[in-house]
Amino acid sequence: MVECKEWGILPDGGATHLFTVTRGGLSLTVSDFGGIVTSLTVPGRDGDSCNVVLGYDTLREYVRDDAFFGAVIGRYANRIWGAAFMLNGIRYDLTANDRGNTLHGGMGFHKMLWRAREEENGVALTRLSPDGEDGFPGNLCVTVRYELTEDHTLAITYDAVSDRDTIVNLTNHSYFNLSGGGPINCHWLWLDSKSYTPADERLIPTGDIRPVAGTVFDFRELRPVGEYPYDINYVLGDGDGPKAILYSPESGRRLIMYTDMPGVQLYTGGGLRERLGKNGAQYGPGMSVCLEAQFFPDSPNKPRFPTCTLAAAEPYHRRTLFRFEAD
User: Fold this and answer.
1) Is 110 a catalytic residue?
2) Is residue 250 annotated as a catalytic residue, yes or no?
3) CATH number for the domain including 53?
4) Domain range for residue 44?
């Protein structure tokens, strides 16, 4: 079931809406502003449901938000060093918004108003990113589908096509707290990853790929997240199995992530300034876990990394699933 309601008016006069999808005990609310997941309600071991993503109560707060809460990220998730890259012998200069680098596409998709279409168990959001937007080449037509499936899964599908060779790296930036609030140091995490991409002080990858063995980054065995402020890209294993498992012993909720992307950014909100969120909740560092399925950061400038190049007229199709269980 999908319900739509008006949400508010943007400063430029655009009208926004909220779409609520309910199925199989889950309830998802998405806006056509930024493709933002404003809430995701999931049952716990006691049968009670609560929202498991950070967010705000009002459109105005999302317009001012600097943390990308729940939004579609594009054209390029994560960072591009020097706000520039080379493609086919041509240098493209991008919007610099992070210490001389490009973060999450610059002006990005997260503050754009998308065209929404209700579907049987979800919502499809579409927009045309024009040639040169934020410096990226090609007219890029993008569709992001949010769907709830009958097996308690949020499926996010990304489709795109460009009329010129370009680069594309789309993800969702939801901040998860499976207890519904409070610190996440006691959440447990497992990752299907033997290696990671070390980064410098600006969080730009060095270009190396290192093993996680013997480091704080090793989550090959399910263990508590702890206090370390993670903000690092992991190289995911091959195959169709789970790529990440996040578990809250307090609530019994378990998130199982599947994706066909080669990497995932683990971010525990170390850079999240303290603020008030939904229902007056206090947010800050160490209160959420982001699992951003992605191409590696700065891939356009790192030949060793999997390519994020999308050829003209070639379809871009990627899918990430978040399945929920409770015990």
Assistant:
1) no
2) no
3) 2.70.98.10
4) 2-326
